[in-house]
Amino acid sequence: MGKLAVAALRGVLVVLLAGSLFVQAVMVPLLAADMNGLRPEYAYLRTPILVITILGIVTAQVVVVCVWRLVTMVRRGTVFSTAAFRYVHIVIGAFVAAALLVFALAVVLAPGEAVAPGVVLLLCGVVMAVLGVALVVLVLRMLLAQAVARDIEAARMQAELEEVI
What we know:
Number of helices: 4
Order of helices and strands: HHHH
Largest sheet: none
Structural class: mainly alpha
Oligomer: single chain
């Protein structure tokens, strides 16, 4: 991975992390203040929506940090090691958690008339999309496993060749 690509990706990750921290520190409290004005029949939605929002932001931050660590490993040439699996597993878990959070939001919003039924259906579509991303990362993890196995085999063969020489 070239230096320019690594620098560009790190720049994007910094912007994403800074943006998520801004949303966490400024926008969520504003959302909470706005939700104080909910009609009494929808007041029960305030806490679940705020908790789901905060946890959703945390899952995004976890993904950003893990991708940063993986990019660092790529830059150092150590990504084809078993240490990379830890970060990939965390990313997969974070995407699954995000999908569960979106599903929980759909469940919270489904009863009553707080939102139109189409919004709940759209949220279910988002759940499927996020689970799809988790599956793509799982496939990439399998590719990483194959690359690590081949790297280990190549190192073993290199050691055998050096013994012969």
